[in-house]
Amino acid sequence: MSFLYPGFLFALFAIAIPVVIHLFNFRRFKKIYFSNVKFLKEVEEQHSSKEKLKNLLILFARILTIIFLVLAFAQPFLSTSKSASATLGNSVSIYVDNSFSMQAANKDGILLDEAKRNAAAIVEGFGLNDRFQLLTNDFSGKDQRLVNREEFLKALDEVHISSSTKTLQPIINLQERILKGNANKFIYILSDFQTNITERKRLEVSPNINYNAIKIEPNSLPNVAADSVYFLSPNHQPGASEKLVVVLKNYSKEVANNIPIKLSINGAQKGAAALTINPGATARDTINFSGLAAGWQKGRLTIKDYPVNFDDSLFFSFNVNKNLPILAINGAGTGRYLSALYGADKYFELNQMSESNIDYGSFSQYKLIVLNGIKNPTSGLAQQVKSYVNAGGTLIILPYLSPNFSEYNAFLAHLSLPTILNLDTGQTRIDKIDFNHPIFKSVFESIPKNIDYPIVKRHFSFAQNSQNTGTAIMQISNGQTLFGSFRLGSGNIYLSATGFNGEDGNLATSPLFVPLMYRAALMGSAETPLFYTLGQEDAVLSGKVQPDKNQTLKLYGDKFEAIPELRSVDGRTTVYMADQIKKTGFYELKLADSLVSVFGFNNNRAESNMKYLTKAQIEALAPSGALHVFDAESDFTKFSSGGKEIAHTFWKLCIILSLVFMAAEILLVRFFDKISKQTI
């Protein structure tokens, strides 16, 4: 038998003794117990053993009432812990969940405050010489060590809500790494145990560590989150109309009515709407706006949702290009159709090179490269365009139709594209067009009927490629692909089976030619992600950046400045920030005074889902018996017992017995004389 508060027990006993003496008429108690002479005289005077019996019974009832009342406050328990050695010290690691969900409340207040109080109680239950680790979602270096009780409690006071989130296995792994040496090892995890805290995999635990999970139960709260945004077109032109799709998600079990939405670009409101969302559903709305100037744009989507509001804003960024640079590498006698097409629109900036004079170093400057009727594609060209497409570029291949296609096959194979079987000189027509493909999807309001499909006089027949089947955009009457799209790395390749010369057919003069080539250029514009998530992404993508020796690339935010690490691969630059960004908002990447990119960072939406694991589900995460799960309110005595595994608690029994003996005293006072008279 052990007591949770032994010092308090002794203090109460010291106070109880004079109280007992006062309540029980010390004079009579003294006559009975401390003076045999007076006792005998009293007996002789009263000549009644019944009165003595009554007094003794009342005395014992009162004493037992106070004893069991004091024991109830001392909270006695029976410990069954067999693993901990009394000769060893204790090493204790306590994880306090400080994610956004811990901002919620229950009847005891804010969840994070309750977790901190429980963590302090756990520490108080251990000895003064034991060592402790405090771990939060920040995983900061200062927390990855063992400290004494005073240092732990000081660090605990400084714990605040963080945008970082972690899952259980990395948390436990870090705790286990800290708990080294010859000591009794204890791990405590204090959390509301949202469903996102686990990856639904069985936890890997050590048999030499005592694992304890303390579940802090929150009140049920409704929540709607600004989930994401995306544009219907990846290309953005100055002054053009933009269509932004906003996505909201309702995580509650009730309908969210008329959630107000506001869209601002560079601080100016560009649109507003309201959405009603069914329970557990996702809703979308399209906001149209225009009037943007060239350059980087800072967008912010906001909603009004109470009381959970950490996910009510979404920061995103995008670049409005002043023009779209295109490179055409032409074979002999080609290029006039491309010049007429792209030269008619000032937005397209067309640069042309001959296949005998190619500037490979300039490829990364272009959004689109067209190989137009090249007769001899070399292995060097294949390597360069492969790197270009892998980095997010768009390539259109309009082949030179020749029966000698061995060089073309080597070129195509290097790009993981279908190889040529033969040159078919039989005249045919385009028979099928995929109007649902992004190239044609928004071109026609309705699918045209009775289309005069272009004639194809000669074309290549391609072998099937099981590794890269691609998507057929246009097909001829025998079902073969005439114009198809293929993914390679982060970019796209459009492969045509015919050329644009008159002897190849009339595709270049048909009404389909303009939307085909325009949309291929616009849709192929590689964009960086619109937004990023705090704690999940330590690297962001940017365009190609090559600082000079005397130039420094810096990342700026609200009261933030850092020099990130850069890595350039295939014409794209990856910016590594090493978990330096902790706050939501916009961050500008600058080279000297020149703005390179803008990034929008947001809170993790995994915390938006206010669903929680039950005690049974938490226990099932680990092997049977390896993880002890406690309720923060009802099991406080058990988990705050200083590492002792409590099998039974007796405070409730003590209260019951105290009440029983109190009732017995009352009955003795009121009915003892009557009963004794009836028995005479």
Q: Key features?
A:
alpha/beta; 36 strands; 5-stranded parallel sheet; 9-stranded mixed sheet; 15 helices; 680 residues; single chain
Description of the structure:
The chain is of the alpha/beta class and 680 residues long. The protein is 26% helix and 31% strand. The protein is built from 15 helices and 36 strands. The protein has a nine-stranded mixed beta sheet with strand order 17-16-18-19-26-25-24-21-22, with helices on both faces. Helix 1 runs antiparallel to helix 4, helix 4 packs antiparallel against helix 15 and helix 9 runs parallel beside helix 10. The longest helix has 28 residues. The relative contact order is 0.13. About 1% of the residues have low confidence.
